[in-house]
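User:
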Amino acid sequence: GKRKSLNNSVLYDSDESEDSDVLVRKVFAKRHCIVDEDESSREQQPDKTCPTENVSPNKRQKVCAKLKELARQRATRTSTSSGTCEVSNGGAEIEEDVLCYSPLTPKEDSETDSDSMKDFIVEEEDDDNTEHVESENRPQWKEENTSNSELLAYYVPQLCRCDHYVHFKRIVKAFLINAIDDTFLSSLYDGARQKKYARDMLLSLHYLDDRFIQPRLENLISRSRWKDRYKERVDCYPDVRIILKNPQNMPCQACELKRYCKFNVQLFGKLYNSRTLEADDFMSDDTQVLKVGMICAERTRIYHNLKHFKYKLYVDCSSVTESEGAEDEPVKDTVERLFSQLEDSGWIQKRYNDLEEYMDDADHFQEEK
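Assistant: Predicted structure:
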């Protein structure tokens, strides 16, 4: 019988064309038992009488008294934003400032629903008053100077990223301060200065080292065959000259591979501290001359430009303070004046463009074949 009903439920499409031979499953509606409305409504209605027909009169009175007391407590209880909830736990009552909800009977729901929603309904205010309140709470942005980054910085400051050029300007200002007060950078790295401007400058210095320079230096070294001795020499000397000479078929003094070496790499300058940028006068006239191949010479130029960019920038800032600084002027005023002059003349932007050019050279440098 089941198989027969299954076969009868599968039909073909009434269209007799070849393209319409598709099985169509006939869907039958589910059967529902029709129940008398009086009986169903009688079953669904809860029995409002006290369920104590087969109980003794004394016990029935106690149960009815408890039910009346419970109904009275429910009627007087209102839902508020904060209440005191008493929880019995092994005889101990714990009071917590939480919102207590209790099941309501249909009668109580109709009486207390409107009262409980009063706390959540806000009457519409006049449009003029609303716009006035919103204008007071909203930050006063000038239309011509408003940008998405400024709005993001105001509303979600932890998600706002500082622009690279802003980092660079902070570094220039820190170098100008240290050129006048040579203890500024050391106190900055030691954590002695905790004001906001000092912490921002330290963050920018770390950003320059850890995000701009160091990853690219490691990439240049990892793709080369430089020996450690050659790398240490390039790291120590802040000045370099790469001179074209007659080619010689010899081992390159950078990678020690046999090449047609036609470049002389001349390294010179004072050794300095990478943090405080304080120069060391020990063997200040020392010079190293190394003969390298074409690939190693180009890699040396790119690597050296990035490695010693920060020191060269500090040297330039020091020369500016020596020529333009005033002796009887406070340090803060001198720094602000010099910084404004450098920014207005495009000096800071030019140095930042040099840094971007060095980083692009490192990113696009072809790997040695």
